[in-house]
Amino acid sequence: MYKVTRPTLLLDKKKAIQNIERMAKKAKASGVNYRPHFKTHFSKEIGEWYREYGVISITVSSIDMAVYFAGQGWNDITIAFPINVLQIEVLKHLSKQVKLGLVVESIEAIEVINTSISDSVDVYIKVDTGYRRTGVWHKKVDDINEMIQSVADHHVPKGLLAHFGHTYRENQKDRIISIFKTEVGLLNALRDQLGGSLLISVGDTPSASIMKSFEHIDEIRPGNLVFYDVMQAQIGSCRYEDIAVCLAAPVVAVYPDRSEVVVHGGAVHLSKESLLDSEGKAYYGVVVLLGEKGWSAPLDDCSVISLSQEHGKITMSSKEFEKVKIGSILGILPVHSCLTANLMKEYTTLRGERISTLHQ
Amino acid sequence: MYKVTRPTLLLDKKKAIQNIERMAKKAKASGVNYRPHFKTHFSKEIGEWYREYGVISITVSSIDMAVYFAGQGWNDITIAFPINVLQIEVLKHLSKQVKLGLVVESIEAIEVINTSISDSVDVYIKVDTGYRRTGVWHKKVDDINEMIQSVADHHVPKGLLAHFGHTYRENQKDRIISIFKTEVGLLNALRDQLGGSLLISVGDTPSASIMKSFEHIDEIRPGNLVFYDVMQAQIGSCRYEDIAVCLAAPVVAVYPDRSEVVVHGGAVHLSKESLLDSEGKAYYGVVVLLGEKGWSAPLDDCSVISLSQEHGKITMSSKEFEKVKIGSILGILPVHSCLTANLMKEYTTLRGERISTLHQ
């Protein structure tokens, strides 16, 4: 494998492609459109890997990311974030370049689009079915209807878009299946009340991974699954062996007295996203060994227990501790791969090829 | 003030310079060397602001950062992180370019330096006086003595370097003063046992800010104080009005039912560093209003209560909520400015000048 000398985000390309393929096939078998969220990798090169599986439409989370992928030949892009009306000039430009999908949840935002964008765009109403982050509450049918009428004056009222973000708080498959079915039911009830012609687009990685097939929806938008991470493994969306990215971190200090090591790999590499272990203690990553062909399964009783800006403090079992010395490289599976990728800004494949992103 | 249209890290240059000046004067009055940590801003332009206050020596947290500042005319640089022996070739190159300070805590690392670096470098022994992150435990006098002897064969055993990181967990000034005095005492006892010629270099922002003068040490290395942040205000290191950076975040959705707004400003802008409020709930930033000449004091009963990748969810008092609409800009004082700056990659002054960093 590629020889690492500094904190490096390794990418197992084969695993990432398997993750893409699995979801693309499941979407196809269910007859739903797969519009993957590119906010996880934000890389033109990784974007290309999806094309082989028939993907032609994508999701992004910011206007900047839409501009980047529009420049890479993607011409069907939904920005799955309530539009920032202050950047309307950029959206106007984008609407001339690609088939643009915008997400709204207020009459005010629709009026800005109607007034400023002359080329027709697809407009999705963001609907809140229970997560309580963004969206119009699904029971506000009159408000939603009014929005659709307002959109229809100038643009295409394309669909109802929802994100079942509360699946990320679960770790039992039947609970996630239940959330998915309940909320899809609410969206269908809403669509029926609105006349039945809107698409339904949903997006979380847990339910997209756990559902065996997709009924009563038209589109899925999961993003994280290209890499997965420890959070998704804990939820049950993937197996640890499906995780496709791993931070390689040099060991800079060892502490036999407390069976701990410190690596160069901190909050500016992994992010401060944490999970709680069975004793309620926070951890920031799971430790693996790097080998010729990739990385091992998680090591028992080893985890990243604290992060400073550049330091990662790792507790190790005495068995594993014995094998580590200054200058060793440890692998860390990230808790939240989207944030780790955003911080690391580029990937290195197991063969040492560097893959750039929007940020590098 | 500069008109913001997207998430933007505003920098109040006047406050930052006041923060630098205050510490530079205090260090000078105490007769200690001020070697500011540049990991907080990692910007060549902000680095220049220190020169006016007599700063000629700096601290960095990574080899990459040392290379960047060496290229900006800084020629006395300490890398306050246990050396990564895998990057010894870069250190070798740097040792020819600048007066280089390296931090070690093992014979193994010293042997790598002795074998590989022919130009003389200053070597500091990292000493742990209680934080239990990195460093040789201060009571291991024989081990430290052996390290110093080993360094002396090829290089200059320059000093004992410590970081009282446990001050970050305190919020009472007398506790922080007590930690500082106790640990400085331990370092002096150690220095005496080692023969008395080593420098003592210490570094945390809380004690550097709270101590009125510095006795029995030779050097201070605080970094965060150039910007400060909510964490430091909570600790008591600064006043809220000393905080010199603020994320300007566009409001993209408003929720009258729950008195909440969502801004474009999430984990990829602020970082997931959090603090606990008086009820034990996590928050990710403090809300201020932006005005012509900067930003207001923190708004009562308003805070960032959750972050997704791009979304920030803010709870607001009904009084403040009424003034906000889609397209408004809210200011967010970050919990941890070092991590926010690292994510945002550049600064915008109140006049709209963009200031670049190592990352942009």
Lay out the secondary structure:
The structure is a homodimer of 360-residue chains.
Chain A: E1 8-11, H1 13-30, E2 33-34, H2 44-51, E3 58-60, H3 63-70, E4 76-82, H4 88-97, E5 99-104, H5 107-116, E6 122-128, E7 136-137, H6 141-152, E8 156-162, H7 173-193, E9 199-202, H8 205-210, E10 219-220, H9 230-235, E11 245-255, E12 260-264, H10 267-270, E13 275-276, E14 282-283, E15 285-288, E16 290-291, E17 294-295, E18 303-307, E19 311-315, H11 318-321, E20 329-334, H12 337-344, E21 347-349, E22 354-355
Parallel strand pairs in A: 1-21, 2-10, 3-4, 4-5, 5-6, 6-7, 6-8, 8-9, 9-10
Antiparallel strand pairs in A: 1-11, 11-12, 11-20, 12-19, 13-14, 15-20, 16-17, 18-19, 21-22
Helix pairs in contact in A: 3-4, 5-6
Provide a descriptive summary of the structure in words.
Two copies of one chain form a homodimer. The first copy, chain A, has twelve helices and 22 strands. The first copy, chain A, is of the alpha/beta class and 360 residues long. In chain A, helix 3 runs parallel beside helix 4 (88-97). The two termini of chain A are 23 Å apart.
